[in-house]
Amino acid sequence: MLGRMIVCPHCEGSFGELEVRPARGVAVCPACHAMVRLELEDGAWRAVGFTPPTPPEGWSLRHEEAPRRSSADYREAVREPGRLLMTRRWWTPAVILLTFFALAWDAFLFVWYSMTIRAPSDDGFSLLAMLFPIGHVAIGVGLTWWVLTSWLNRTTIEVADGRLTCRHGPIPVPFAATQPVSLGDVALFEVTEPDRWWAKPALRRYRARGRMQQGVEKMPTLQIEARLHDGRKVPVVTRLSDRRHADYLVRKLERQLG
Predict the structure, then answer these.
(1) Helix (H, G, I), strand (E, B) or coil at 73
(2) In sequence order, what are the beta bridge partners of 16?
(3) Distances in whole angstroms, Cα of residue 119 to Cα of each of 125, 136, 166
């Protein structure tokens, strides 16, 4: 038996008195993870305040306003959309070591091609020397791109004027496209695994290995999709590597639906 239900002042969801820690007079809302402050009144617990959940590591909550009604009369009320602005920097401490490795790799290729271009070209050796490290060049390009995105890129999630957008930049990122959506068209948000050939093997390896080393970013294999009223699903937030981060963002976005 759950006893009386308590309304969370943060998300307006309800939870039972079994969640209450009587000695401290607090409870953690199962829906939004806010810490709710309680007081005992006439033998029943009542919420008197709350501390909102902190953003996951790496994320910054820049601004948040919940949607509201402009009038107490529901028949004439005009819904005013909320606002949300969250950012995440891609940088991690592991990028420092990777940066030195990329510089050494690119420097080797630069020296190799400089020597090859200056060498005599009277036989086929020069052509072979030019073609031999092509695979290394491809790795160097990908490695350099990864280092630059890790230093410079941010993920920005914004809700403004009833519209949700997610951007990765300033350096372009393939296979991470998102679609802006109007919140009025959204029925719910859900966490999914992208159906991409390159993501599934990485996800299987990640699950097999369990938790990766601290400080190394996990493979971004999760995304948030918006399920629209017409049944369509569109990706609205991509490049997520932690289920807890994804669940936190879903709660924030669901709150914007009102």
Answers:
(1) coil
(2) 5
(3) 10, 20, 50
Residue written as token pair 């994804």: 246
CA distances from residue 257 to 81, 185, 193 in whole angstroms, order as listed: 9, 10, 23
Q: Please give the structure tokens belonging to residue 29.
A: 């809302």
Helix 94-118 × helix 134-152 angle, to 10°: 140
Q: What is the pTM of this model?
A: 0.72
Distance CA 176, CA 194 (A): 10
- Quickly state the pLDDT bin for 124 (edges 50, 70, 90): low
What tens digit of pLDDT does each residue of 140-166 get? 999 999 999 999 999 999 999 889 999
Cis peptide, bond prior to residue 170, ω within 30 of zero: yes
Bridge partners, 27 (sequence order): 20, 36
Give the SS3 label for residue 220: coil
Question: In this structure, are residues 74 and 65 in contact, taking their beta carbons and an 8 Å threshold?
Answer: no
216: β partners? none
> From residue 117, how far is each of 12, 109, 113, 139, 141 by CA, in Å?
69, 12, 6, 21, 20
Gap between the Cα atoms of 143 and 97, Å rounded: 12
The answer to whether 7 and 14 have CB atoms below 8 angstroms apart is: yes
- pLDDT attached to residue 208: 43
pLDDT of 39-58, one tens digit each? Answer: 888 788 888 888 888 888 88
Return the residue matching tokens 């998102």: 178
Residues present in the chain in total: 258
Return phi, psi of residue 168, to 5°. -115, 125
